[in-house]
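We give this protein:

***
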Amino acid sequence: MTKNDHSILKLALVLLFSVILAIPAYAQDQPMRSREIIEKGTFIETTGNLRHMGGEWFLAVDQVLHQLYTAPPELRKEWGVPMEEHKQATVTGFFYSPDGDPAGVIAVSTITLDGKEFRFREDDGTPRWRGRGAGTTPGDGTRSGRGPGS
């Protein structure tokens, strides 16, 4: 092997180890899937103020931000869901925090804004816009406001 071959081999090994070491960090930064949140999470109801950052919605509750997994933006718009920065909201859904931190993600079942409840998921966590015909017929996404089973 020439000196140049040794340099190329060393560079290849450094790159290989860099990639191997970066995989856990990369995997940690991947967004969770809603199904995983629903399976591992706890059903909660909480109230806070909406925040919009980096194209994502969050609920600020007692100085803690929870990322919200809602319906796709085009459906929220079609259903007339009035999500606005700093607006008070009551959310029911599946809360999960992989590291046990106070902050986590909420797969939103319902959100109540301005006294009107909007349902995104069925009681089992199934999105209204997927599966078994749920959400495939025209509608405004509202419910009677009597809670998750209404």
Observations:
- Residues 67 and 106 are 6 Å apart (CA to CA).
- The chain is about 25% helix and 30% strand.
